[in-house]
Amino acid sequence: DAGVTQSPTHLIKTRGQQVTLRCSPISGHKSVSWYQQVLGQGPQFIFQYYEKEERGRGNFPDRFSARQFPNYSSELNVNALLLGDSALYLCASSRETGWGQPQHFGDGTRLSIL
Amino acid sequence: DQQVKQNSPSLSVQEGRISILNCDYTNSMFDYFLWYKKYPAEGPTFLISISSIKDKNEDGRFTVFLNKSAKHLSLHIVPSQPGDSAVYFCAASINNNDMRFGAGTRLTVKP
User: Fold this and answer.
1) Which of A16, A31, A84, B22 is most buried when burial is the number of CB atoms within 10 A of its CB?
2) Tens digit of pLDDT for each residue in B24-74?
3) Side-by-side strand order, sheet with B72-77
4) With an 8 Å Cβ cutoff, are B43 and A107 in contact?
5) Which residues fall within 8 angstroms of residue B54, CB to CB, at 6 or more apart?
């Protein structure tokens, strides 16, 4: 089975622009989470979606939004980009929520803001 | 606030010996703990997990120990192999939501 796929792999934007990142979970996985990883740190939780509903939100500004579609794929949107938004954005999926359901990660989208 | 901490940024071990990676957490509500391995240019790969009702979980060469009273988690790799060289992240969550990661420990296994 294919793993978690994310697109695009790399993206360059300028300050003030908007960006949409896409994620396809592992087949059969209903939960998708988004993380931001900056150099030298671990991933930071942004959102979790399950069955198209938001189940959790990390400490990120309202410029960050996400949604999950009926096929369980997901999009992360970031508006009014800042230089500090430059990071690796990771998507992870799990079959269900709840413990005992490890999240499996894609290889991420590298976003650079100029 | 950093609820999950990995205080050792790096660890170097000889091939065949044991690697011990440590992790401390502050939130006693965490009920699910995981270890991930990350190679450059790849996403984190799930290694092993443990729920808060257990104190040990084994999977082949990998064993995770949980000490709830000390709020401490460790990953043992025995025997260590050069292919284990990577960055290891400790993570913790409440009901598998809002997963918090440590900053990672870079493990180098020397031949």
Assistant:
1) A31
2) 999 999 999 999 999 988 999 999 999 999 999 999 999 999 999 999 999
3) B4-5, B19-25, B72-77, B62-67, B56-59
4) yes
5) B66
